[in-house]
Amino acid sequence: MNVVEVTAPPSDLRVTRTEAIPRWSTRSRLALGVWTFSMPAAALVLGSYALAVTPAVPTALFAGAFYVITCHFILTALYLAFAGQNPRLRRRGMWMTSLVLAGPVSILVYWVLHVWRAPKVGQDDVDSVIPAHRARAAHPLHPSEVK
Question: What is the pTM of this model?
Answer without folding.
Answer: 0.66
